[in-house]
Amino acid sequence: MSYFVTGGTGFIGRFLITRLAKRNETIFVLVRRSSKHKYQELLEKTGLSKEQLVPVWGDLAKGKLGISSREMGKLKGKVSHFYHLAAIYDLKADAESQEITNIEGTRNALAAAEAMQAGSFHLASSIAAAGLYKGIFREDMFEEAEGLKHAYFRTKHVSEGLVRKECKIPYRIYRPAMVVGDSTTGEMDKVDGPYYFFKLIQKLRYRVPQWCPLIGIEGGQMNIVPVDYVADAIDYLSHKPKLDGKCFHLVNPNAHKVGEVLNIFAEAAHAPKMAMRIDSRMFAFVPSSIAGIVKNMPPVKRLTNAVLADYQIPADGLQFMNMPTRFDNRDTVKALKGSGIELPDLEDYAYKLWDYWERNLDPDLFKDRSLRGNVSGKVIVITGASSGIGKASALKLAEAGAEVVLVARSIEKLEETQKEIADLGGKSYAYSCDVSDLEACDELVATLLKNHGHVDVLVNNAGRSIRRSLELTFDRFHDFERTMQLNYFGAIRLIMGLAPSMLERRAGHVINISSIAVIVGTSPRFSAYAASKAALDAFSRSAAAEFSDRNIAFTTINMPLVRTPMIGPTSIYNAVPTLSPEEAADMICEAIVKRPKRIATGLGISMQVLNAVAPKATEIIMNTVFRTFPDSAAAKGEGEEAKTEASSEQVALAAVLKGIHV
């Protein structure tokens, strides 16, 4: 005698086949001709020979599984057990696909099993067949199911009903809970069920210390079982005599709630746990009609979709947060008695599931994070590209395959940069433009669109910095005008000029080089510079909100002090820790690859938090900096500054406040 398996190339099917193979019988597996590679992969993963694991070419969507008459004749009377595992287990699948696979596929499998005169029919159903039944659902219950509106629930219920009503040979039904990876190896084939929350847990781990208690949700039941338990149980129960016509719940009778599951995996991931969990039933007093109206409001839907997309959770996954059903499995426990098959505790193998996911299934592993993969062939405009940060960025981006557009006042210096880019094998274009001249900005925009058609990324790097205390600026109002003209108005002119074409293409990225001084909140001697950068930051936040649904990204980089010609006139900076232009260029490259809202140093963020919770303390610290580092000779109008050695106090303070403009 032999076995016939549909869905054998799937995850549960593969695990079941490895167990059936130990019984030394031939295993026939249904395979579409277009999926021959899956059969080859199955052979490799199971280690079976083609004589042990025989392909039967067919199609789940066709009558009698699309098995030819000749092939059916060979199978007739030889199959003792027919296992129907093929189905769609995916919340993201459309309803039509689920109807065809789960319902018509089961109908076709029944017809095939009858045609080949199989000894018994085994259906891998699901606890989803119970729908959203409130209370305890027993193994002998079926018609009592309720809440079958979702396509997955409905199709699994209907497919099981077909077996109960139309199967003409002995049958057995198995209802697994949410199936996760192998409890011994963690192996899993896709992200599903509780795995949808792994990205959320991972991001919390990166952003919040493990010891920090969080407030979260309690949620409903989340019944989880490992694939090895499911395969072991089906293999054993399908061969045990006198069980025909029965249904078996392959579940955890003491299922955890969603909040408990999240905490179990948070501990496995070394992430912070939810110390307080709010039960969603607390909000049951809100009428469903009102809750539905609020949930479907456009701003709420957009915000919800954005959050779900960020954490890669399918929208349908939310309704599984409050599963009201508990599953009784007394018949299964009785039937498995003496087999040695026991359900392991989730706490004992959660770390294996997490480790396997993070090493093999994390969606970020499959994203192209390389610089070349994200900039090759893209038109990237960089202002202030003749030296410093702009030049260093242009060299890195051009070497990675970008079409770099260099913008600065001096065409001679730009040509020098172009020569270096050419030596690296890159492509670049140079345009002379004084970004503080608004008419020149308009001409530049027109030229860029004419010559290049569009701009993928605009890097507003050109800037002017003035380090001068307010007492020396009372009669120098032009200091504020000059910084605003270049740092704010010029940058805005370019953004406004290029925005229409970006919006039309629904693609674009604006990167503004700002300053750490903006997020620190107080910046003695840099009032003109910090104010101009803060204005650009405020504009970008507003623009980002308006263009958020048009795929136009805005990134602000709050640069610490960088060793460029801009800081040359202040000799004290020779003793101050600074970034190199190349390190600053790396931040720009990171912005292009990841498209974050903001990039800042740890010190900058820490000072921002301190300023928010203790503004007076920040003021005192920055006043100390102000008094420790005097105005330069140039700021005082005393000509060229004499080179002086930094005091020990200055060196110490600069080391502590590394990167903050002083």
Mind explaining what this structure looks like?
The protein has 662 residues and is an alpha/beta fold. The chain is 45% helix and 15% strand. The chain contains 24 helices and 22 strands. The strands form 6 sheets. The protein has a 7-stranded parallel sheet, with helices on both faces. It has a 7-stranded parallel sheet with strand order 18-17-16-19-20-21-22, sandwiched between helices. Strands 6-15 form a two-stranded parallel ribbon. Helix 14 (388-399) packs across helix 20. It starts with a strand and ends in a 6-residue tail after the last helix. The model is unreliable at 567-573 (pLDDT under 50).
Number of helices: 24
Low-confidence stretches: 567-573
Extended strand count:
22
Strand order of the largest sheet: 3-2-1-4-5-7-12
**Main sheet specs:** 7 strands, parallel
Return the average pLDDT rounded to an integer. Answer: 85
Annotation keywords:
662 residues, alpha/beta, 15% strand
Summarize the structure.
The protein has 662 residues and is of the alpha/beta class.
Describe the secondary structure blueprint for this structure.
Layout: E1 2-6, H1 11-20, E2 26-31, H2 36-46, E3 53-57, H3 69-75, E4 79-84, H4 95-115, E5 121-124, E6 135-137, H5 151-166, E7 171-176, E8 178-180, H6 198-207, E9 214-217, E10 221-222, E11 224-226, H7 227-239, E12 247-250, E13 256-257, H8 258-268, E14 274-278, H9 288-295, H10 298-310, E15 325-327, H11 330-336, H12 346-361, H13 371-375, E16 379-383, H14 388-399, E17 403-408, H15 411-423, E18 427-432, H16 438-452, E19 457-460, H17 478-505, E20 508-515, H18 516-520, H19 527-547, E21 552-559, H20 581-594, E22 598-600, H21 602-613, H22 615-628, H23 633-636, H24 648-656
Parallel strand pairs: 1-2, 1-4, 2-3, 4-5, 5-7, 6-15, 7-12, 8-11, 9-14, 16-17, 16-19, 17-18, 19-20, 20-21, 21-22
Antiparallel strand pairs: 10-13
Helix pairs in contact: 1-7, 4-5, 8-12, 14-20, 16-17, 17-19, 21-22
